[in-house]
Specification:
12-stranded antiparallel barrel, 418 residues, 45% strand, single chain, 18 strands, alpha+beta, 6 helices
């Protein structure tokens, strides 16, 4: 039994060695075959590069089409011979037509309707260069995009602007002037500040603070060295909610007084003073925003049928002058008001600002119409003309003017806008 297993082991080793030799032999043969295939592909590639293609064989490899030349030669008793290659192709095509007519879908007449057959191309030897492979360009490596930091700023709906001017007027008349007269000097300064809010949707909040103060001197006034000729402190605030296009529901607050005492020439009596009077008017209504004449005319018109007027007079001697009865310093009243403010840029150098204010409590009426014509001489130099008619039936009636009042002045000086 021991010899039996030994013999089987030797036989298995020989068989295994024989199988391994066959595998190695076949592997070497396969390498030789692959080398021959690569060599043949290289030769074919080189032949295709340099091969001259004969166009006369085109019909044999084109889609199945019935050409007339082969049938014409078959029907002629003594057909004309073009050349051996063309005759052979015609004969081969006729055999194909007779053997498989079911594969013929097109004919030469259809091809001619689509486009004429160029005989010169068919008979001409065509040279074609074929590349079996194409060298692919390396894909450029793009840099990794860097993160971009975005800064989103919250929109600023507030807008601030202002305007100020300081102007002077000098008038000299000699003592022997034939028409008489009196020399005088005057100066007026003003600052108008605006802080407005507009969310570009429905809500607006406009605030305007106006401050004006002017002085004049007059040699004929022996009581006062100088006195005011223009004095105003006025705050206008409007909260609007858009109703339709240019119309807004509006709540308006109007408060105004003056800086200094109001005096007259050669008279020691004080006619007005700071907080004497002080008026605060709160109105509710509708506002219309004006925009016309190619945006050269802009402004607002406020119709406030519901208004509340609060008046305060600090000087006891002036309470009765401004409609307050008894020993009180305050007065409340209800009424209606209208406020219109417009600016018209007539030309680039000339503008007109106007403000019409009317208030009535149905037992007293106040109407003020302020007009300012500004002529811009240079960027910082301008001339102004002010016309200011006023009607107030709460004051004492004048024998000549009645309840009407009027003020006018003109000046030239420095102007600055920011």
């Amino acid at each position: 039994m021991k010899y039996k297993y030994l013999i089987m082991s030797v036989v298995a080793a020989l068989v295994t060695q024989g199988v391994s030799a066959q595998i190695v032999e076949k592997y070497v043969d396969s390498l030789a075959v692959i080398r021959q295939q690569l060599d043949s592909l290289q030769r074919v590639n080189q032949q295709l590069r340099n091969e001259v293609v004969d166009g006369r064989y085109f019909r044999l490899f084109a889609p199945a089409t019935f050409y007339h030349s082969g049938a014409n030669k078959a029907l002629l008793m003594s057909p004309e011979t073009d050349d051996e290659v063309t005759d052979a192709v015609d004969e081969a095509m006729m055999r194909f037509y007779m053997a498989r007519p079911d594969l013929i879908r097109n004919n030469e007449s259809q091809l001619r309707r689509v486009g004429s057959v160029r005989e010169d191309v068919i008979k001409k030897e065509l040279t074609q260069q074929v590349e079996l492979t194409q060298i692919a360009e390396p894909v450029p490596v793009e840099d990794e995009p860097l993160p971009i930091q975005l800064v989103i700023q919250k929109p600023n709906f507030w807008k601030f602007k202002g305007e100020g001017y300081l102007q002077f007027l000098q008038h000299y008349v000699s003592d022997n002037w034939h028409k008489g007269g009196e020399s005088n000097y005057s100066a007026v300064g003003a600052a108008i500040l605006e802080l407005n809010y507009n969310d570009k949707d429905r809500i607006t909040f406009d605030n305007k603070l106006e401050m004006k103060l002017g002085f004049q001197t007059s040699p004929s006034d022996t009581v006062h060295k100088f006195k005011t000729n223009n004095d105003l402190v006025r705050l206008t605030s409007k909260l609007g909610l858009q109703a339709h296009k240019h119309w807004y529901y509006t709540l308006q607050l109007l408060a105004y007084t003056q800086f200094a005492r109001g005096l007259k020439a050669n008279d020691e009596k004080v006619y007005s003073d700071f907080m004497s009077p002080f008026d605060l008017i709160l109105g509710l209504g509708m506002e219309y925003k004006v925009q016309a004449l190619n945006k050269r005319l802009t402004g607002t018109l406020n119709f406030l049928p519901l208004s509340f007027d609060f008046r305060y007079v600090g000087r006891t001697a002036l309470t009765s002058k401004y409609g307050i009865r008894g020993d009180h310093h305050t007065m409340e009243d209800f009424g209606s008001q209208f406020t219109g403010e417009l600016k018209w840029n007539i030309i680039d150098q000339l503008s007109w600002k106007t403000r019409l204010f009317a208030y009535t409590s149905y037992h007293r009426t106040l109407v003020e119409w302020e007009n300012q014509f500004a002529l811009k001489v240079t960027k910082y130099l301008s001339a102004n003309l002010f016309l200011y008619p006023r009607f107030d039936d709460s004051n004492e009636r004048d024998q000549r003017m009645g309840y009407f009042q009027f003020q006018e002045w003109s000046s030239i000086g420095l102007t600055y806008t920011w």
